[in-house]
Write a structure and sequence with these properties.
Length: 281
């Protein structure tokens, strides 16, 4: 039976309605994601006010986690789950004294050591109270679990540890070695490679070494001081960007993208110092 003109018109109208519904749904998802990101960013900025080093560490860990997940070619939704979990992984340390944040666990007193060991659970409890972040909370709880079962808080072993937590564990330790203990990339990797299979998932760690070699190789250029208006995506930030009120805007050690550059430029009149940014390219 041949379609009549009215049948064709009805199909066209139905198709148009479906397109409009799909567009509306896409906009709703985009709005929810933006609101979700806003919650996470607000929490992170609050952390930066409490302790600048901790805020910088969490932001760098998040950016490198995102880059590593993209290197692994993980699905986009998993990349962002990992990114948000990394951005908040140490929220359980907020309010701790500086020794807990700045010293190694082996150099802490009994009371501070206990608080440090408890911070993944504290972080889990804080984030788990936000419905849209419950999946993130589980990842945060396990980011100090060791592959051989010697970690904390739950003594999980191997595949019992969420893959996202295994990823963040590696990135977290690398950032600490680089920016807390001032090791070079080669020194950090040499130190960490000794713990592959005990602290770290050996398969993920092998892939991380391939990733970090590529990542650091792209950031070996010379350092330049440039104005915010001259920033370009792909430049490596070689200094913390601090606002005049002392708030950490963006930490050193991240690769700038369009969003970060826009943020820097919008705050350019309130930057601490001479209003120039030191970058490597």
């Amino acid at each position: 039976m041949e379609n009549t003109g009215s049948d064709i018109t009805a199909l066209q109208e139905e198709n148009q309605q479906l397109k409009e519904k799909a567009a509306s749904l896409k906009l709703t998802v985009k709005t929810l994601r933006r609101n979700f990101q806003g919650i996470v960013q607000l929490l992170t900025e609050t952390i930066s006010l409490d302790n600048r080093f901790l805020g910088g560490h969490m932001k760098r860990t998040a950016e490198m986690t995102k880059a590593f997940c993209e290197f692994l070619k993980l699905p986009k939704d998993i990349v962002y789950v990992n990114y948000y979990a990394a951005l908040l992984h140490d929220i359980g340390l907020v309010g701790s004294n500086s020794d807990i944040i700045e010293k190694t666990i082996d150099n802490l007193g009994e009371s501070d050591r206990k608080k440090f060991i408890e911070h993944p659970v504290s972080g889990f409890e804080i984030i788990n109270s936000i419905y849209s972040l419950k999946r993130t909370a589980v990842i945060i709880r396990s980011h100090h679990e060791n592959y051989d079962g010697t970690g904390f808080p739950d003594k999980l072993v191997g595949g019992e540890i969420p893959k996202e937590s295994r990823i963040i564990h590696i990135i977290n330790d690398y950032d600490m070695n680089r920016f807390k203990y001032s090791l070079t990339p080669n020194e950090a990797c040499s130190k960490m490679s000794l713990k592959s299979g005990s602290l770290y998932d050996p398969d993920l760690y092998n892939k991380f070494e391939s990733f970090i070699t590529h990542f650091e190789k792209n950031n070996k250029g010379s350092s330049h001081n440039i104005e915010p208006k001259s920033l370009e995506p792909g430049m490596y930030l070689d200094q913390d960007i601090i606002l005049s009120n002392g708030l950490l805007l963006i930490p050193s050690g991240v690769i700038l993208d369009k969003v970060m550059i826009g943020k820097i430029q919008s705050f350019s009149s309130t930057l601490l110092g001479q209003g120039v940014i030191r970058v490597i390219y």
